[in-house]
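Practice problem: predict the structure.
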Amino acid sequence: MAHTFTFENFDYFLLTKEEVMDIVELFYRWEDAKFRFVDGKCSKSTYLGQHNYGWDGVHIITFNKKLIERCFERKVSIGGNFSIAPTVKMAAAQVIVHELMHANQEKLHHGEKGFYGIKNGVTKTGKPKMARYHGRACEREARDYVDVKMNELLAYFNLPSQKGPKVAMVETKAEVNREAAAVSELLQECSKVTFEDINDELRASKIMSPANFMAVVSELKKRGFHQIMNVLTKESVIG
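Answer:
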């Protein structure tokens, strides 16, 4: 037996099918499984990649090729906390490794709502209440996994290894802007957001500054949140 692979819209992806299959063999921890790789749209435009585990036991991994290319050009961390890709192929590979950790997690954490950041109850729009990105153990683990596995990936592509635990960490304006936008996106899952919530999320992303705080507040207001006694509340909630 061996892993089963299917590919959709993959003729012009950044990696060949053979490279993708090799990366699965290297970084998927469990026995033979079914994978479907799609070059298409993720559920959110800010996602570089997305893993879903189907009812039929297939790991579906979707990529946002254009966003991966933009992030690579801007030299921002991709997949991990400090993982700067030296080539665009590496950038795509780092996204795969991140999503493969989510595939790995299905064996150990399937049904563990807290691990995936799912809280009790639902929002006003009927969606499950979720911990924000940096509060989700599943995401922290996936980002750490990419950082730890960077030199193994570099070796696969015959590239020089990187030294130190924080591989080539750089903070560019583009990275800060992308992280601030991601913070805004995540906070929109809540029906109510306090100024302290915004500060906490910016600190977790290591981009805390007055300018980024105001940028997040401004974006939330554009999306229907309004300021009331230091709390931003969805317009539909306050009527």
